[in-house]
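sorry for the late reply, my laptop died twice this morning and i had to redo everyting from scratch. anyway the thing you sent over, i finally got around to it. pasting the sequence first so we're on the same page, its 391 residues, then the predicted structure underneath. double check i copied it right bc i was rushing
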Amino acid sequence: MKTPAQVRTDIDRRLSRSWADDVVERVGGPASEDLWPYDFPLGRAKSTELAQRFTEITVQVAEWRAWARLHRVELLEEDRRVSGTEQTLPAHVRIPDIDTAATVVGEGWPDKLQRARKRAGILVSRYPDLSRPARMLAATDSYGDTDFGLLMDAADWFADSTIEQRAALTPRQVPVRGLHAKWLNTHRNLVAELAGLMDLGLLPPHPARIHFTYLDPDYLATGARRHDSGSVGDAVELPYQPQVVLISENKDTAVGFPPVPGGVAVEGAGRGGVTHAAFEWIRAAPFIAYWGDMDADGLEILNEFRVVGIGATSLLMDLTAYEAWERFGTNSDPHGRSLGPRVPRSVDQLAPGEGQLYLVLTSPEWARFRRIEQERIPLAIAQAALSALAA
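ok and here's the structure:
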C-alpha cells in the first residue's frame, strides 16, 4: 500500500501535467479531457501478503483514514478476505477537483491557480483566436505581472502593425513602452504566437563579429593599428597573411599577448566556433592554436572549434600543463559559483592528453582543483609555448 507522501507525489504529477488545460477550460476556453474527479490507486497487495503483514497494514489503514479526514477527501474502500475474515481496506483516494488537489499538494499551488485563472480569463477574452491558450498560460507561468503585461502589449503592437512597419525596425526600435531588445529576443516566439504571426518580421540581427590583435613585430614597428575587428560576410583584408593564429578564450590575454612573427591573436566568442570558422584567413593559417581555461568548459569549447573545421592545437590545456600550474587552481567559475562533477559530454575531437584532463575534471572522484584560469599563466610562458608548437 502506498503512503500518503507517495500519493501526494502522484497528485502533484497530475496537477503539473494538466493544470493549464483545466484552468483554461473553466474560464471558457477549449474543452479538454475530464481531469477531475480522479481516483488515485493506493496499491493492492496479494492476500498472502495481507495476512503476513496484517498488523503493519492495520496501522497504515488508520493513517490513511486520518489523512482523508484531515484533507476532507473521500477514501474509496473495498472488502478483502484476510486469513478467512472479511476486512475493509482503502483502495483509492478520490480527489474531486483541481482546487482540492492544489490544497493537498500545497507548495504554492493554490496561489498558482488563483493567478492562472486571472490570466487565463484575460487570454481567452482578449485573444479569442489564440489556438493554444493553455500552452501560452503554462509558458508564461514564471512571468511576473510586469512581464505578462509587457508580453500582451508587445503582441498587440505586432498584431496591429503592418509588414512594412515591422520590416523597417530592429528589436531595439519597436515602440512599446518598457520593451527592450534583449527581452524581445528572449520572448519573441511567444509574442509572435500571441499576435497571430508566424514571425515578428523585424530586421535580421547584425552579423557576428570577431576582434583581433596583430602580433607581428615588424608590422607593429610601423606604428599601424594594433587592434582590429571583422564582421561575418564582410571582405576582411589583413595587412599581412597570418602564419600563426592564436584564438584566446580570454580577452585580456588576446589583447596583451607578446609579439609573435606573423601572428594574430583572436578573441574567443564563447561556444561553438562557428563565427571564427566563417573567416577564411583564420582557416587558411598554417598554424592555429586555441588557448582557454583548463576546465571542463574550456575543453568542450576546444572540441567545438575542431568540430566546425578549425583544426586548432591546444596551448597549455592538457594534464601536463595542469600539473605544472595547479598552484593557481580554483573551484569557482567566473561568476563565483562552486564547481563540481558533471556528466561528461561527447568530446571525441580532443587529443589523448586533453581528453584525460577533461575526464578527471568532470569526475566525482576528482578531489583537486577543477579550474585553472588561463590568465594566471604568465604571458611569457604562453609565448614560448606557442613558438615551440608553431615551430
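The longest helix spans residues 4-26.
thats about all i looked at so far, will dig more tmrw
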